[in-house]
TrEMBL record:
Domain (PhnB-like): residue spans on this chain: 3-117
CDD domains assigned: PhnB_like (cd06588)
TM segment ranges: none
Protein's recorded name: VOC family protein
Amino acid sequence: MTAVTPFLWFDDSAEEAVAFYTELVPDSEILSMSRYPDEVPGMGGKVMHVHFRLAGRDYFGMDAGPQFPFTEAVSLYVACADQAEVDRYWNALIAGGGQEQPCGWLKDRWGLSWQIIPDRLIELIRHPDPDIAHRSVQAMLGMSRIDIAALEAAAEGP
């Protein structure tokens, strides 16, 4: 069977990042890791290949230098059931040097972009009443971390 698996290129911190991700996200684990031999200039002992699972989905990663940094063009999307879950992921991922971005996006300390999105946001922006959907989108556009109570208040309108 054909498999399509995301592959993450880290400068030199794949082991630290993957250990953090697999501790943070339930149903996650590191499945295998290999290292560059000492004979590879500047790379000896760094991660040549890591296979890991986040929330039951497989990923690969490697250390390969700064030639291709992460950009916002690719992000990991975390669907959150409630505000407590949003806050848990948000706080953990921005800790240690992460950066808040608009509309529920952030960059973690390794530069990888994440979307921390409550299910309620998706329900509201897809609402059959276009006024509720519009007010929800407008509220989201003014947020970094998504605040479900503020979204619901905006959706209700004046």
